[in-house]
Design a protein that fits this description.
Blueprint lengths: L4 H17 L3 H4 L4 E3 L4 E4 L10 H7 L6 H7 L6 H15 L1 E2 L8 H7 L1 E2 L1 H13 L5 E8 L11 E9 L2 E5 L1 H5 E4 L2 E4 L7 E3 L1 H7 E3 L13 H6 L14 H8 L8 E2 L7 E5 L5 E2 L5 E7 L5 E5 L2 E3 L6 E4 L2 E6 L7 E6 L7 E9 L4 H7 L18 H6 L4 H10 L7 E2 L7 E5 L5 E2 L5 E7 L4 E6 L2 E3 L3 E2 L5 E5 L5 E8 L6 E9 L2
Helix pairs in contact: 5-7, 6-7, 9-11
């Protein structure tokens, strides 16, 4: 049976369609980027041209001839990308922002050497047009420093470096910023040149979604909900993609970032949120680029300096850290100019802790509990040397409703192991108190109540010293040790006695 040529042709076409349908999605799509030795360009179909009436078109025509200026700016440039770059740099270096908000066109802008965002973009367009470079002006909203969307519209650009491929740029933001109503030219105009789509999406929301060039384009609601991103994060090792991904996380918040750590520390893993909770551990991993000390500081308390972090090698340090103060927590670097000062790098707010939060923290940091916060003479290391660890100390403080502990003298606490002593600094006359301890050094022990010295200790078979006394004189009472025969006594504990 003979089949017609036409029939065979349709079979071939059907097979090709089937094969095409099972190809990976990436094979059927246009490449989203194009890379060469100079730059990365992003795929975008040119916007459709809107036909204008001749009369309106004539009104929009510039009166200034930009051809000579364009030739001067682009002299020596061989590619469209180089020309775009040269035009951008010239505008950022020579045009101020118009703080009167009156200059909107290229003609007025080139004469006054200033303009608003529309003027920056119009000027760029006019100069680029003389070089037959296609540029599209984008209209939309931007992010305010507080994270809200701007009320006024903003304009920026997409310039084509080749057919269907181009780059984002914002010459207005590249030129500088307004500070207290005055224009301040930027030291780095390139931050807003050839901007990655995800970076642009953090701060710029185009009215036309086709200008986002990101997977899963943002809605205006999502853009408004995103926090304002401090671009200095990029100087601490984070990538644009990481920032963009985190910013798109629902209810994302950020810690406050300071700039004194640039070139010194990189963040490998940190809590990317504005507040932390007492009772929870958080992982911090950093990479030091300079050998410098660092720590956490809350109020006047310094926690976990470099020595307490795990050294993973290659300059990387890590720690599982639990906040234990209700004051804001800062990650700090030791000042390179003053060894006594710390520079804030990150700041976190601490959520108001619940009873459950404190209960979760107590097994790890008993002396961080609220009952201990205002106890006087709290010397954990000295009490630990004397045999009372932090958990025992917290228990004694709670049981005795302690407001102020007796004064324990540095280094002398290690000369005994306490079994029982009065745990309040102020004791009363005519009230009996018991002292029990195991000496670890010294030849003699005595209790002194003003002028009275008491040395009648009961000593058990295992070496425990015990004495119960009733102070008779107001003033002070001390527990003392004589280190060697013939030497003076040294105070170990000191109490005040009520009259």
């Amino acid at each position: 049976m003979k089949r017609s040529f036409k029939y065979q042709t349709w079979i071939v076409i059907a097979i090709q369609v089937c094969l095409l349908s099972i190809l990976p999605a990436e094979a059927k799509k246009k490449a989203t980027t194009m890379q060469d030795s100079e730059h990365t360009a992003y795929y975008k179909k040119p916007a459709k041209q809107v036909k204008q009436k001749k009369r309106i078109a004539r009104l929009l025509e510039p009166q200034y001839d930009f051809r000579d200026l364009a030739k001067t700016i682009t002299k020596g440039c061989k590619t469209d990308y180089q020309k775009i770059k040269a035009i951008y740099q010239w505008i950022c270096s020579n045009i101020d922002y118009d703080t009167t908000y009156r200059i909107y066109t290229a003609d007025s802008c080139i004469k006054a050497r200033k303009g608003v965002c529309q003027a920056y973009c119009d000027l760029f367009n006019r100069i680029a047009a003389t070089q037959k470079i296609k540029v599209e002006t984008i209209y939309g909203k931007t992010k305010n420093p507080d994270g809200s969307a701007s009320q006024m519209d903003h304009t920026w650009l997409f310039a084509y470096t080749s057919k269907n491929y181009g780059i984002f740029l914002d010459p207005t933001w590249g030129a500088g910023t307004l500070e207290k109503g005055k224009f301040r030219r930027s030291d780095d105009c390139w931050f807003w040149f050839n901007v990655e789509p995800e970076k642009m999406a953090l701060t710029h929301f185009p009215k036309e979604a086709s200008y986002q060039l990101v997977n899963d384009p943002l809605s205006m609601t999502e853009f408004t909900a995103m926090p304002s991103i401090n671009m200095n994060w990029l100087k601490y090792g984070l990538t644009i993609h990481e920032l963009y991904t985190k910013a798109r996380t629902p209810k994302c918040t950020l810690p406050v970032l300071f700039t004194r750590g640039e070139g010194i520390v990189q963040f490998v893993d940190i809590p990317f949120q504005s507040s932390l909770k007492i009772g929870q551990f958080y992982t911090f991993r950093i990479k030091l680029e300079k050998d410098i000390d660092f720590s956490f500081i809350a109020g006047n308390h310094v926690f976990d300096t470099k020595k307490q972090w795990k050294d993973e090698g290659n300059g990387i340090y890590s720690i599982a850290f639990m906040p234990r103060s209700t004051e804001d927590l800062c990650f700090c670097l030791k000042s390179q100019d003053d060894d006594q000062e710390w520079n804030n790098i990150l700041r976190y707010h601490i959520d108001t802790p619940t009873k459950a939060d404190w209960s979760a923290a107590e097994p790890y940091y008993p002396l961080a509990m609220p009952e201990v916060q205002h106890v006087g003479n709290l010397e954990p290391e000295e009490w630990a040397q004397a045999g009372i660890d932090n958990h025992q100390l917290l228990k004694l403080i709670k049981e005795n409703n302690v407001q102020e502990l007796p004064l324990i003298y540095s280094d002398n606490g290690q000369k005994l192991t306490i079994v029982e002593v009065p745990m309040t600094k102020v004791i009363s006359r005519d009230h009996a108190y018991t002292f029990r301890f195991y000496p670890k050094s010294g030849v003699k022990w005595a209790i002194k109540n003003e002028s009275a010295w008491l040395t009648d200790w009961e000593v058990s078979d295992d070496g425990m010293y015990t004495m119960t006394i009733t102070p008779t004189e107001a003033g002070h009472l001390t527990l003392n040790v004589q280190i060697e025969e013939g030497q003076p006594y040294w105070a170990v504990l000191k109490y005040d006695i009520n009259k």
